[in-house]
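Hi there,

I know you've been waiting on this one. I reran it after we fixed the sequence typo, so this is the corrected version. Both the input and the resulting structure follow.
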Amino acid sequence: GMRIVNADERRELLQETNDVALTGRVGLPSGDSPLLPSHISGPLAVDNFPCIVQTEMPPDTDPNGPTPDEIAGAACAVGSFLDGEQDTSEGSLLKHGAVLFKGLPIRTPEDFSVFAANLGWTVTTLVNGGTERSILAANVRTASDEPANHTIEPHCDMAHNPVFPGKIAFFMLEGPPANVGGETVLVDIRNVTAQLKASGLSEVFESHGGGGVMYRKVLWSAQHVDHSFTWQKRFFTEDRDEVDAKLRAMGNVIWRWTENDVLEFENTQPATTTHPVTGEELWFNGIHTNHKTYYETAPHIDTSLGSPMNALFGDGEEIDDETLALIRSTWWDNAVALALTSGDLCIVDNMLAGHGRMGWIPPHPRRMLLTHFE
């Protein structure tokens, strides 16, 4: 069985997470802007985002862990709970945007792979992502391989891309111990959309090329550079022809190969997108996480040959610092920081909820896995 926890249980489950400091984080883009909040809310400050579900599973008595059948059964139950009656269901993903499950019978990357395959959704592996990931099991990857002390700004996956995942499942394989950081960050995009609309930002983008955002990217060849911004890493192939085919399939990408097998490409996407089921117009783009300031301020990213990515107004003009700071502060203002523990599973609608993570103190472990769905 599954039930949404009540307010008292929610307080008990989440008591560990208080306000999390944002000020003074290493390599935080727009970090010196007075617009950015000094702290992020703990989840108790926000009414029922994310929605938390306690799963009532029979006790796990088998020393070998849960069986594939038990995992598949749990996945079917979660999938139907989230799909519900479109957006009228109590547990619906469309209603809440993000749902955190406690107590599921998942222990290993292989368990999570079985779980993902049985949710009733189509698993997808998308290329051209902004972060480095490692494949651990069928359709299961690390959420990010960035260094521990690096804070990843909240964002929606692949929002800079014509093709992006509809849903994402995050599984905390190994949660960090208390009080070392590493909180998972979730953001209600409906709130971000409303606030940015009220601030007049849509008109700013409309006046620069009709509301679009231009993304420019450079990927080097692994034969010539040591860092991870290579087309081999980001497109999961060693074959240039395969990269060409994948770019062609995206439809609106202009690209060229230059000296030393360097790939340069650009595409323009709208700053807002309509949700395919609810019809809501949502702020959905990669402006802040694809902007060169993200790469230039991250100490672990080598930008000696230039930034691998940049986001511009649709007419190709640079986006000014104030606009960037307003966008980033609106995301952080609506962010909730959660201390997830081993075994927690969080599922988000990629257009309704953004995600990120706070840096933590190495060498403490924190291992988060993900699977993308159409």
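Quick highlight: The chain has eleven helices and 21 strands.

Best,
R. S.
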